[in-house]
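Q: Give me the 3D complex with adenosine-5'-diphosphate.
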Amino acid sequence: MLSSLYGKLAVVLVVLLLLLGAAFAIGTLLSSRAFFAEINQGLHRDLATHLVKESLPISDGEIQPEALDHIFHMLMVVNPSIEVYLLDAQGTILEFDAPPGAVVREAVDLGPVAEFLEADSVLPIWGDDPRDPERQRVFSVAPVGTGATLDGYLYVVLGGEQLDSAIRMVRTSHELRLALGALAAVLLFGLLSGLVSFALITRRVRRLDRRMKVFRESEFVAVPDPVAAAGGGEDELARLESTFQEMAERLAGQLEELRRTDQLRRELIANVSHDLRTPLTSLRGYLETLRVMPELEPDQRRDHLETALRQTRHLGRLVNELLELARLDSATIEMRREPLALNELVQDVVQEFQLVAGERTVELDAELPKGLAIVDGDVGLISRALENLIENGLRHTPEGGRVAVRVLQQGERVGVRVEDTGCGIASEDLPRIFDRFYRSSSDSPAGTGLGLAITKRIVELHGSSIQVESRPGEGSIFSFSLPVPADEAAGSPPAVS
Ligand code: ADP
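A: Here is the predicted complex, encoded as structure tokens.
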């Protein structure tokens, strides 16, 4: 309990309040002592003067024993706690009425005596106690002498121990007891309200601590409930809670991302192995057949060789695309971005595929409006992305269909759409067609399943994203856009004519 934040705060508060109470009590006691001494000295201010007036203890430099005895006797009767000393003009104690050994000082300091005798002296004035070398006491004093000569002083130490009297006064004074009782009540109230406030403040710290513990015990997977973090306004603790929430979410997200990447990596390796093994096995099968069966007809031999060749082409393409994807994925890929006229680029790529389109009797054309802005991009990569999209369009469009590439200005970007009137893509395949090695179940095994993954990566490297819309049986539209560089957008003349 004491090791907790609440325990430590409570101990500090209790100690502080105890110190405060003790300081107040000591202060009260000391001020009561001074007050008591002041009253005592004030009341007896003229006592010594009266005594001297009553009977002069020194006359013409001679001590008058009868007069002194009279004074001692008188005080013994009136107040036995008052002590009288006869001093000479230098403060040396000449006479006193006390048992032998009781008086330990030989002289009394005359400084306080002179101060006392001044007309406007402020009480209490503490003077030497002849019976105690350490202690100071209040007194009354009067000079003794005849005419202008000073023979000495009558030094009257006022009775009662002031501290004892003060303690007695505190004990017996109703008002003081009331004040001390009120102080105790205030301290108790302070203690209770302090403990309650600490409990309220540390409750939120404890709650944060619990949430952190739960998060840690879940191996940083289960993000704590954000609703539980609410409350407490905008103070430091609330900020701490929301920062922890944010950190927990980010950490859990990154762990999830890592797990997903790891899963993808495993799948990728499995897919690569599978996709390499299948054509290799088939290739070896055909080559083995050719080797062990020399009696095969020339037509059959040619068929086998062509199939084997097709497999090597497929293998080559697969390896190339894998390498290409690895290059696009690498953090150090060097893009050669430059101002490029998309119209011309699209025109060239479409031209490349006209022959293939003609063979498949699919119409391939480009719609290129005039006055398009120059965009910023890597010519080689953008051509590659367009080739993939056009090739896919041609491959999935039946005879008599159409593949069109449109380029259009879209504000400060230039959009590219590759549309076909092909078989379309089933809605369950749509979310996955950009995944590596994903091929729809209806597709021919000729594809590698990497083309769209490469295209997507290229578009992403240009700070954009690729979209697809498709209706099975009607066709598909793939689209992306490229940014117009800032100075182009501001209306400067195109960099490429
Ligand atoms: P592949 O090289 O095997 O075509 P892609 O990554 O290019 O691999 O395409 C993934 C899948 O997306 C293909 O299996 C195909 O089913 C589907 N697909 C891509 N483009 C089209 C299209 N224009 N029309 C219909 N389906 C398409």
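A quick observation: Confidence is low (pLDDT under 50) at residues 492-497.
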